[in-house]
Amino acid sequence: MAKIIVITSGKGGVGKTTTAASISMGLAQRGHRTVVIDFDVGLRNLDLIMGCERRVVYDFVHVINGEANLSQALIRDKRCDALYVLPASQTRDKEALTKEGVGKVLETLSQTYDYIVCDSPAGIEHGANMAMYYADDAIVVTNPEVSSVRDSDRMLGILASKSRRAENNEEPIREYLLLTRYVPERVQRGEMLSVEDVQEILSLELLGVIPESQAVLNASNSGIPVILDAESDAGQAYRDVVARYLGEDVPHRFLDTRKKGFLSRLLGS
Amino acid sequence: MDLLKYFRDSQPPKGSARVAKERLRILVERDRSGRNQNQPSYLPDLEREILAVIQKYVDVDPTDVIVHYEQEESQEILELNIILPEGASETGQVGGVP
Ligand SMILES: Nc1ncnc2c1ncn2[C@@H]1O[C@H](COP(=O)(O)OP(=O)(O)OP(=O)(O)O)[C@@H](O)[C@H]1O
Ligand SMILES: [Mg+2]
């Protein structure tokens, strides 16, 4: 049985797709059979970030409607054998994702994969609800900014009341906070909510902090999940996040303004 | 101990982040109690009326009066939280016992 992880936020543009791409790649690189699904019907982007947009023939909605098999729609990642992408459709009909249809696809995938990563669309409507409904774990992507934090909290309310686990009175979805686009310098100047502030308000387990980074744009420009840019701060931060998600005890990094010189980095101080 | 860090941390928080945090705290609290399905239906009215009474005496913001309801095993808790504006107690009317 696969573990189903939803990458969600409420607010748009906070870094869900960036996160879904990197986390799924990170899990697959560690040998876990992983599939990442784009739930953003009409606005599909995940294939672009993953760099497989030219290989899309069939999509999630085709599979749900029985117009294609899963094996026809799944795209194997060229960089990592354990990773597959299920793209979203560009049809405008958001209702194409039905609860039953999504459930069937996830159940079939569950038999083959270890992890199913669901990239949620923004908002708290149908698409976002479908993405989170079957989840076991939720990674709530939040920016250190008021509307994002508020929307994350709303999403927590939805996870706790509208998910399958909630409806069936099962153990609730396990929720993690991922703070992205963090700028320690601005936090230090008192211009940006700190990681402690956000954690205090949302009271969630902190999975990691991804710094605001030029590397993210470079990565999306070239269709490479930023986690593969091992030199970059954001890439390393996502690597840590995957390790932490898998239960490893990895200290948080990139929270400080102090620029580490080469020597102190070498000495690990 | 890191002396620089000591000075940094002992400075009073400044900047808009502090305001953001305070606003969020109130907002989230409010959202959460609104989500609480089991809360009694009179709660919004109660909150409105309490606010009206308080506003007769102190110039509080509508978001500064928070009625929070919680249900535990065997008891119900009704919590009333009023945030008075700075200097409110000096403006006469409710200045307290002379
Ligand atoms: N850590 C980061 N540093 C810099 N830019 C980032 C970071 N994370 C995300 N971005 C940028 O923010 C924008 C939105 O990212 P992304 O598409 O991942 O968000 P999203 O939450 O999936 O958006 P949507 O709600 O529209 O689906 C992109 O331009 C991306 O490059
Ligand atoms: Mg997205």
Task: Report on this structure.
The complex is a heterodimer of chains A (269) and B (98). By secondary structure, chain A is an alpha/beta fold. Chain A contains 13 helices and eight strands. In chain A, a hairpin with a 6-residue loop joins strand 3 (75-76) and strand 4. The longest helix of chain A has 17 residues, at 146-162. Chain A is globular, with a radius of gyration of 18 Å. Chain B is an alpha+beta fold and 98 residues long. Chain B contains three helices and two strands. Chain B has a two-stranded antiparallel sheet. The interface between A and B is medium-sized, with 20 and 18 residues. Adenosine-5'-triphosphate binds next to helix 1, strand 7 and helix 11 of chain A.
Briefly, what is this?
The complex is a heterodimer of chains A (269) and B (98). With 269 residues, chain A is of the alpha/beta class. Helices cover 41% and strands 16% of the residues of chain A.
Element layout with pairings:
The complex is a heterodimer of chains A (269) and B (98).
Chain A: E1 3-8, H1 16-29, E2 34-38, H2 46-50, H3 60-64, H4 70-73, E3 75-76, E4 83-86, H5 99-110, E5 115-119, H6 126-133, E6 137-142, H7 146-162, H8 164-167, E7 174-182, H9 184-188, H10 195-202, E8 205-211, H11 214-222, H12 233-245, H13 262-267
Parallel strand pairs in A: 1-5, 1-6, 2-4, 2-5, 6-7, 7-8
Antiparallel strand pairs in A: 3-4
Helix pairs in contact in A: 1-12
Chain B: H1 3-10, H2 16-35, H3 43-57, E1 65-71, E2 76-82
